[in-house]
Amino acid sequence: MASGNPTTGEYIAHHLTNLTYGRHPDGTWGFAETQEQINAMGFWSINVDSMGWALLLGVTFCALFYAAARKATAGVPGGLQNFVETIVEFVDDLVASIFTHKNTLIAPMALTIFVWVFLMNLMDLIPVDWIPMLASALGVHYMKVVPTTDPNVTLGMALAVFVLMLYYSIKCKGVGGFFGELAFHPFPKWLAPLNLFLEGVTLLAKPLSLGLRLFGNMYAGEMIFILLVLLYTSWFWAPVGGLLQWGWAVFHVLIITLQAFIFAVLTVVYLAQAHDVPEDH
After folding, report:
1. Which terminus of the chain is more exposed, N or C, with fewer CB under 10 A?
2. Which residues are catalytic?
């Protein structure tokens, strides 16, 4: 947190700034303490808080599911086993209804994406000042705790999905079939340049929309939480702020779940399209 009594703009900017590590203009490496230093670090800087929280939540996901699998029983299941089995069955049925090809990677990947994105989104329900204030007390200037409010995270995941799309498209259709699909549809072959432009835009729009949709929704949700906290600066608006914050948190549970679901479903849909060959239509 900025020292003293920050203005509204400073408060919002502080909560929306990542803990960034990179190279300073003088050649030394370290954490940025101001927005100017972050800008000077350029492209090769890293948002340590986004990476740290994303990895921590990924490990949490693996630990929970490993614990459930390790203690699984054919008898009366415990609460954790019931919970995990419900999620696994839900995702498995979802994938089976969308993905009609044979690929043992798809269902586990969809499960990982759904739970991991949900856990990252879930961090948005932690009161916005708790962890940043604790970090500030420990000498850490910035701390964003919702990885999916960082476009580097969401677009990074979307890029991984895009690479898999290209890989399976070429693997299932061949190089000629893949480029033929781009160049010879939807118009006649003599309009190949136009087809290539239109289909290329469509192809590139998939990962962009996948990553930006998740980022935009979560960033907007975080911004609303921050704005509602500002109501507490006035004794008159504080009760209203508390009521609105509680209502938004309840509604936000639906948003964070829906965004994780959409990301997982679109991933499965895009990979199903990558597996499609002309004989399948």
Report:
1. C
2. 209, 213, 217
